[in-house]
Write a structure and sequence with these properties.
globular; about 350 residues; mainly alpha; about 0% strand; transmembrane
C-alpha cells in the first residue's frame, strides 16, 4: 500500500494530459494522493455492475431518509411558531426542496463554495456560543440547582441490554464514526495547495473540534438537568426530545425556535458536502479505469473545475457510497485500516448478535 508521503516526485509529469482530472489537478497532485491506485482498478471493474445495482437501493434509501428527517425537523420547528399541522404531503414537499437545495449547493464552483462553508461554520459557532452561555445563565437566574460534578462525571446509567464494558465502548465507537463522516474540509481538498499536509491537518482539526463541542454540550446538559426524568416528565413534550423541550422551556419559544431552526438548516447543508465528497471520489476512481463509463464519470467541466457528471448522478441518488474508501493515508495508512477493519468487525458482531434473542 503506497504512502502519499513516499510518492514519486515525477508523478505529475507522468500523468496523461488527455485525462481531464489529471490535467486540471496536476498542480497539486491531489487526485493521485487522495484517490485510488490503478492496481485496484482490475479488481473492482468486475464488481462494477453488482456495486451499481446495490448502490441504487442503498443511496436512494439513505438520501431519502436524511432528506425526510431534515424536512420533518424543520417543519416541526416552524409549526411551533405558526401552529402548522404537519402532514406527510407537506413534509414530502419540504424534503424535495431540501434535495433541490443540496443540488444547488453542490453545483457551486469549488473556488466559491468556501463562502457556503464559512457561513455555515459561523452560524454554528455563534449558535454554540449562545447555547453554552445562555443556558447556564438562565439556570442560575431562576435559582435552579446544578448537578454536582461527581454525578456528572462519575454516575453512569446504562439503559442498554449490554453490560457496561460493551455498551460504553460501543457508544464511543459510534460517536467516532459519526464525527469522522462529516468532515467537510476533505470536500475542498482539490482546491488546496500543499494538500498532503493541509488536508489531513484540516480533517484532524475539524474532527477534534466537533468532538470537543459535542462533549461540552453533553456536559452542559448533564449539569443543568439535576433530576433528568422528573424534569422531562414535568415539561410538555412539543418536540419529542428532552434537550429540545428543555431549551424551549428555558429560553422561550421564539429564541429556542430560532436556535433549533439554525441547527437543522446547517444540518441540511451538510448533505451537499457529502455529495461533493463522494462525487470527487467517484471521478478519481473512474480516472483509474475502475468504474463503468469511466470517461463520462471522470470528465471535469472546465467552467466549474469539478466532475459534473459524477455530481449530477449522485445528486439524483443513482450511485451510492459503495465506492471503496480512501486508501492512501500516509505512513500510518496500514495501521488505520487494520484498526478500522477490526472496529467494523466488532460493531457488526454486536449488532448481529444481541444479548437477548428478541
Amino acid at each position: 500500500m503506497a504512502s502519499i508521503l513516499d510518492r514519486d516526485p515525477d508523478a505529475d509529469k507522468k500523468m496523461d494530459t488527455r485525462n481531464s482530472i489529471a490535467s486540471d489537478f496536476a498542480e497539486d497532485a491531489v487526485v493521485h494522493d487522495f484517490s485510488y491506485c490503478p492496481s485496484f482498478a482490475r479488481v473492482f471493474r468486475s464488481l462494477g455492475a453488482m456495486s451499481l445495482t446495490m448502490a441504487v437501493a442503498s443511496d436512494l434509501t439513505s438520501i431519502a431518509s436524511f432528506a425526510w428527517e431534515s424536512s420533518s425537523s424543520i417543519c416541526t420547528i416552524i409549526g411551533l411558531f405558526i401552529g402548522w399541522i404537519l402532514t406527510n404531503p407537506i413534509i414530502f414537499m419540504v424534503a424535495i426542496a431540501t434535495c433541490a437545495a443540496w443540488f444547488f449547493t453542490a453545483s457551486i464552483r469549488m473556488d466559491k463554495a468556501s463562502l457556503v462553508f464559512i457561513t455555515s461554520a459561523t452560524l454554528i459557532l455563534v449558535s454554540s456560543v449562545c447555547f453554552i452561555i445562555r443556558l447556564p445563565v438562565i439556570q442560575k437566574t431562576r435559582g435552579i440547582p446544578f448537578t454536582s460534578v461527581g454525578t456528572v462525571f462519575r454516575d453512569y446509567t446504562n439503559y442498554s441490554n449490554w453490560d457496561k464494558p460493551v455498551s460504553v465502548r460501543f457508544t464511543f465507537f459510534y460517536a467516532a464514526w459519526v464525527f469522522t463522516g462529516w468532515n467537510a474540509p476533505s470536500a475542498v481538498a482539490e482546491e488546496t495547495h500543499d494538500t498532503r499536509i493541509v488536508a489531513p491537518h484540516s480533517i484532524i482539526n475539524v474532527h477534534c473540534l466537533q468532538a470537543g463541542i459535542g462533549m461540552l454540550f453533553c456536559i452542559l446538559l448533564a449539569s443543568v438537568l439535576p433530576t433528568w426524568k422528573q424534569q422531562y416528565l414535568a415539561l410538555p413534550s412539543v418536540t419529542g426530545y428532552a434537550a429540545f423541550t428543555l431549551i424551549i422551556e428555558r429560553w422561550g419559544l421564539k429564541a429556542a425556535g430560532a436556535f433549533l431552526l439554525i441547527i437543522f438548516l446547517n444540518t441540511s447543508i451538510s448533505g451537499a458536502a457529502v455529495l461533493v465528497i463522494i462525487s470527487y471520489q467517484t471521478a478519481a476512481f473512474a480516472r483509474d479505469r475502475g468504474m463503468l463509463f469511466n470517461d463520462k464519470l471522470s470528465y471535469v467541466l472546465p467552467q466549474r473545475f469539478s466532475p459534473i457528471t459524477s455530481e449530477t448522478i449522485y445528486s439524483l441518488a443513482i450511485i451510492a457510497v459503495m465506492v471503496p474508501g480512501l486508501w492512501n493515508m500516509g505512513r500510518l495508512s496500514k495501521t488505520v485500516h487494520v484498526l478500522g477493519f477490526f472496529t467494523v468487525v466488532y460493531m457488526s458482531k454486536i449488532e448481529c448478535f444481541p444479548p437477548q434473542a428478541d
